[in-house]
Amino acid sequence: MSVGASFITGQYYPSGSLVHRADPRVKLLIVVTFALAVFLVKNFTGFAAIVVLLGFFIYLSRLPAILTLKGVRPLFFILAFTLLIHLGTRDGLRTGLFVDLRLIILVVGASFLTLTSTPVELTDAIESLLSPLKRIGIPSHELAMMMTIALRFIPTLSVEANKIIKAQTARGARFDSKNPLTRARSFTPILVPLFVNVFRRADELAEAMEARAYHGGDGRTRMRELKMRPGDWVGFVMAIILLAGMVWVGRMPIF
Fold it and tell me: Could you tell me the residue range of the domain that residue 77 belongs to?
């Protein structure tokens, strides 16, 4: 069982594509709008249109399709459980499939964002978009830094969990039980060492930031300033128009 290899969200895949070179603020806004569109869609036709658009973006970014889908693998039991609990209700299968599809599309969309944007780009994009909040005393730089660090630590913690699982397996622990409850209980010994590693890494990161004289965003400059190019504006407007059209189709009384 390889946990670290299956967690894609938070990792970066360089390919030098047009999407990779796009302004990270545009990509972030498109993904946020994309997530809102997923929740507004009310039929499978709308979902199909959104999946086609997402596939087109993945094609433009030169990402291996299998790579973007790996992020869904750790959610298999959540997806199966969600579908199972909806089967006992009216239109349960349809509702369960709706919930699962939303979750899958959102995970693939988040993976697409992190695979095409470096952590530094995401930090700068979030801080730039939140900068108007500085006028009311909200520290946009610190918020952007915390969100980016949390996102970047997802694959790191996945690798740590994988190491702990292998160590526990070598000591005779079993994680392959077919009983979901038994399997869930078997993961309890993993949580304590995983949380210890989380706090240790947090302390190391804090010390490293202090050693580099990091004291927040006051007075800091950037090596690369974000600048919107004409192509970024065109891509953003086209993506918003397409998503709006898909939401309109997705709310029509069709399949």
Answer: 1-117+227-255
pLDDT tens digits, one per residue of 38-76? 888 888 888 888 888 888 888 888 888 788 777 777 777
Same domain, 17 and 97: yes
Residue type at 101 in one-letter notation: L
Helices (H), the chain: 18-21, 24-40, 44-60, 65-69, 76-86, 92-115, 119-130, 140-170, 180-186, 188-211, 230-250
20 occurs within a structural domain = yes
C-alpha 43/C-alpha 28 separation (Å) is 25
Instruction: Measure the CA–CA gap between 59 and 79, rounded to whole angstroms.
Output: 26
Structure tokens at 221: 């400059």
Whether residue 234 is found in the same domain as residue 219? no
d(CA 254, CA 42): 9
Angle at which helix 44-60 crosses helix 92-115, to 10 degrees, equals 20
- For 156-187, write each residue's pLDDT tens digit: 777 788 888 888 778 776 766 666 666 666 67
Residue 30 · residue 188 · CB < 8 Å: no
Q: What are phi and psi of 62, to 5 degrees?
A: 60, 35
